[in-house]
Amino acid sequence: MTQSVVVQVGQCGNQVGCRFWDLALREHAAVNKKGIYDEALSSFFRNVDTRSGDNGLDIYKGKICSLKARALLIDMEEGVVNEILQGPLRDVFDSKQLITDVSGSGNNWAVGHKIYGCQYRENIVEKLRKAAEHCDCLQCFFIIHSMGGGTGSGLGTFVLNLLEEEFPEVYRFVTSVYPSGEDDVITSPYNSVLAMKELNEHADCVLPIENESLFEIVNKIHQMISSGKLGSTVKQNSLVTSSTGGAKTLQEKPFDAMNNIVANLLLNLTSSARFEGSLNMDLNEISMNLVPFPRLHYLVSSLTPLYTLADVNVPSRRLDQMFSDAFSRDHQLIQADPKHSLYLACALLVRGNVQVSDLRRNIERLKPSLHFVSWNQEGWKTGLCSVPPVGHSHSLLALANNTCVKPTFIELKDRFMKLYKKKAHLHHYLQIDGMEQSCFSEAISSLSDLIEEYNELDATKGGPRIDPSRLKIAV
Amino acid sequence: MSIVTVQLGQCGNQIGHEVFSALCSDIHGTHGLCSKKENESYRDSCKERFFSEEESGVPAARAVLVDMEPKVISQTLSRAARSGLWKYNSHSHFCQKQGSGNNWANGHCVHGPRHKEAIMELVQKEAEKCERLGGFFTIMSMAGGTGSGLGAFVTQCLRDAFPTSFLLNHVVWPYGTGEVIVQNYNSVLTLSHLYHSSDALLVHENDVIHKICARLMNIKQISFRDVNRVIAHQLGSVFQPAHTAGGGSGYSRNPLGDLLEPLVPHPEFRLLGLRNIPQMAESSLAFSTFSWPGLLKHLRQILIAKAHMEEGIDWQVRPPQPGSSIPSTNKPLHFNTSIANLVILRGKDVHSVDLGSFQDPSLYTSWLNPQDAFNAWKTPRAFNKYEKSAALVSNSQFLLKPLDSIVGKAWNMFASKAYLHQYTKFGIQEEDFLDCFTTLEQVISSYTNL
Ligand SMILES: Nc1nc2c(ncn2[C@@H]2O[C@H](COP(=O)(O)OP(=O)(O)OP(=O)(O)O)[C@@H](O)[C@H]2O)c(=O)[nH]1
Ligand SMILES: Nc1nc2c(ncn2[C@@H]2O[C@H](COP(=O)(O)OP(=O)(O)OP(=O)(O)O)[C@@H](O)[C@H]2O)c(=O)[nH]1
Ligand SMILES: [Mg+2]
Ligand SMILES: [Mg+2]
């Protein structure tokens, strides 16, 4: 089996990452009852013997001794990482996996990318290589970061470039939290647009996330629970809704519920690579199927059901609801409406007791309400993993390569232009070595080009379909 | 003679397992409905073909398992071992850590050359275990990366290493509405390569088998396992021992040759479809009786009307009137013209069955002798709980429409250049695609003009 390494950068990256490791441990604990270090566990965890001598045989026999996350934690301030190290997950990381500084990047992409990038380059490469050495078949790096700050956005995309240089064969998946309209970081449009250029050029796949969407989903779940509509039947220890029962005992932090959703996204994305099923979907199949043109690699995701009741027998109607919801606006992890935009490709990753006939039925049912680009009318990719998420009987992750990401990018561009026209805060950036005015103009034109590519595809929507004429064979 | 099966990729391995299970449970069944002697020789013949005797007493499948990821093979091996009836040899599988990612070019151009030696060594070892080697049977899907890309590569290697052996590829046609987005590209690449190296392609369409599961088997929630069991049953109904027409009293000793020689009289026509009758849920079987004339009347109409199963047959379709069969464009629209057909009958009273309706010259293309175009195999040994059953292997226009549809969709995508960068990355260029399209357009045109 293959392994993946998670690189979590900045406050947001580390907080989301922290939720991910907690839930990943819980998922494997639920599946792996024998305490044996198995292939599935090895994809995200190493098994190391930390004790000296006395019982070295355990690890030899395949028993779980001490699990270490295949992760690199990077932040240019110490607060978040220190908190993790004092928390219940402390044993999952050791000091060789951390890179911190004291002052942060001050919400400045250039500080993260240029200053800290230069300064920590060797250190980062060394730790990445170390992590890679621990893998026998490293398949994918997952970067988790936010776009709006300085460290995650600047240094995070610097790491992305390093990965491409050092490990060109290994996939680079990036989970990027986009700033919302009322973001408290004034310079977030600059940081995001500068980071976008790097994502355009160096990522294999980007999973954009908007905090507004996470917030609404969390609210919806809480409303459902407190309104009593679902009453006591809500499974309290499902991974989406709660943190109880896990390693965590401290009080919940404000972002935790939101970050759990992102953590679940990553768990479901990788489930078929870790566990068996009747139609496996390895990580390398994601970009192969969902990325028709190299730059169009932004995948809008949705997770359903958000509040599953644990049924033994899945009633068909509710199962179908899960598929319908995956296409509705309020289940998307960004503010977008895939149904009214154009699909280039769509993947359905299903877990649990769901069979190929359920997939066929739902694809046929939903297809008429969706628009697919003319050359990919049957643009569906499906995966069936037999292990459901903890506390659920089934779940679905839909990944859409859809022009509905465009509004997010346009809005970002507008907010960038508003600042840029007034040259507001520009000097904070330009005073940094290696930052030129051209960095800004190139970044904004990279974004504009991307928007234009989506525009061109959108323009084909609803038009007459003319199939290219086939090769003629002289008889 | 023995057949070495090569299972490739997830689909190939999952189906292969069901095939050996079906063969094994059939020969262990108590429902043979024939003489003890017949039953024993049937069992021996099946074992010679598909299993090798092991010291442990548990027969081992003559199979090589290949995948580029470990999960499917480990699951398949342990399932077989659990059955207790048969197993796979402990050293006849090859897997790597990371699949081909649905990329035909990755399977064919990277994994193929890299692992050729190891895979061929396993095949060689398995072949050497056969006292007499009758040929190779490979099982694969054409939509993924491993079964299709590596499978096409391995097929070519088999052709090179065993130039005189028979080589039959079982190919699983993807669902029309997609499981893999680049399935049409992968299929075009697979089919055109196999057309050059394999003796014939025996095709199962997932959509068709799915429908059989829903309508005939009455399965509510259909899994790949259900689909695979139907496929395995159909394959078993062809490959279990049977007597050929001129073959004397013993069972045919050259199953692949006896199948391929009459069915593929011309290298341009290598696509074989498979139908069988009856097919139903086991629970209904006890309440049903069948007559040979009834079964064969349905089977013949399935053939000429291009039906997928005994339900929903268009009974209006008739063979063209004699004399008007040339030129071929005048043929009735939905009529299926055949190159060659093979019917296999199993069960009670097979020897009195009249197959004249399949020998009708109007069923066949004009350039072949109808006597050569039709063959029949029979055995009084009932197959897999069916008192009477018939299978049809047909080289005809069965696959013309599905092929045309796949090539059309792939061509649409190709015109937009979508996904091509994923293939060029591993060495498959636009010109290679064009060559493959040309090959298949030629096949389409040949079958169209029958
Ligand atoms: N979903 C989510 N968003 C977060 C979290 N923490 C911060 N953010 C968002 O991330 C953006 C700010 O970036 P941070 O990650 O705090 O910044 P940083 O990468 O640490 O960079 P500097 O602090 O400038 O060094 C804002 O848009 C926040 O709303 C979190 O835990 N979860
Ligand atoms: N009938 C049937 N079809 C299957 C099965 N498993 C996969 N398929 C079909 O096979 C195609 C996918 O190919 P796979 O066999 O999974 O791919 P692979 O050969 O393992 O190649 P990679 O995974 O890309 O390395 C799709 O068309 C599926 O519908 C199965 O067990 N039975
Ligand atoms: Mg910070
Ligand atoms: Mg596979």
UniProtKB/TrEMBL annotation, chain A:
Q: Which PROSITE patterns match?
A: TUBULIN
Q: Which cofactor does it need?
A: Mg(2+)
Entry's Gene Ontology BP terms:
microtubule-based process
CDD domains named among the record's database cross-references? epsilon_tubulin
Q: Give residue ranges for domain Tubulin/FtsZ 2-layer sandwich.
A: 279-414
Q: How does it assemble?
A: Dimer of alpha and beta chains. A typical microtubule is a hollow water-filled tube with an outer diameter of 25 nm and an inner diameter of 15 nM. Alpha-beta heterodimers associate head-to-tail to form protofilaments running lengthwise along the microtubule wall with the beta-tubulin subunit facing the microtubule plus end conferring a structural polarity. Microtubules usually have 13 protofilaments but different protofilament numbers can be found in some organisms and specialized cells.
Protein family (similarity comment) = Belongs to the tubulin family.
Q: What is this protein called?
A: Tubulin epsilon chain
List the source organism: Cyanoderma ruficeps (rufous-capped babbler)
Taxonomic classification = Eukaryota, Metazoa, Chordata, Craniata, Vertebrata
From TrEMBL, chain B:
One term under GO cellular component: nucleus
Keyword GTP-binding belongs to the record: yes
> What cofactor does this one take?
Mg(2+)
- Molecular function, one GO term: GTP binding
Pfam families from the xrefs?
Tubulin (PF00091)
Start and end residues of each Tubulin/FtsZ GTPase domain: 47-246
What keywords sit in the KW lines?
Cell projection, Cilium biogenesis/degradation, Cytoplasm, Cytoskeleton, GTP-binding, Microtubule, Nucleotide-binding, Nucleus
Q: Per the database entry, which stretches of residues form a coiled coil?
A: none
**Matching InterPro entries:** Delta_tubulin (IPR002967), Tub_FtsZ_C (IPR008280), Tubulin (IPR000217), Tubulin/FtsZ_GTPase_sf (IPR036525), Tubulin_C (IPR023123), Tubulin_CS (IPR017975), Tubulin_FtsZ_GTPase (IPR003008)
Q: Name one GO biological process term.
A: cell projection organization
Question: SMART domains, per this entry?
Answer: Tubulin
Subcellular location, in the record's words? Cell projection, Cilium; Cytoplasm, Cytoskeleton, Microtubule organizing center, Centrosome, Centriole; Nucleus
| Main function | Acts as a positive regulator of hedgehog signaling and regulates ciliary function.
Describe the protein's quaternary organization and the partners it interacts with: Dimer of alpha and beta chains. A typical microtubule is a hollow water-filled tube with an outer diameter of 25 nm and an inner diameter of 15 nM. Alpha-beta heterodimers associate head-to-tail to form protofilaments running lengthwise along the microtubule wall with the beta-tubulin subunit facing the microtubule plus end conferring a structural polarity. Microtubules usually have 13 protofilaments but different protofilament numbers can be found in some organisms and specialized cells.
The record's similarity note reads: Belongs to the tubulin family.
Q: What's this protein's name? A: Tubulin delta chain
Q: Which organism is it from?
A: Cyanoderma ruficeps
Upper lineage is: Eukaryota, Metazoa, Chordata, Craniata, Vertebrata
